[in-house]
Amino acid sequence: MNNLKVTVFAGLSVLLVSSHSVASEPLALQKIMADIGSNMERIVHGIAREDWMLVEQAADKVANHPTPPMTDKVRILSYVGTDMATFKSLDSKTHDSAIVLGQEAAKKDGAKVIAQFADLQNTCLACHQRFRQAFKAHFYGEK
Ligand code: HEC
Question: Residue 128 C-alpha to ligand 1 middle, in angstroms?
Answer without folding.
Answer: 6
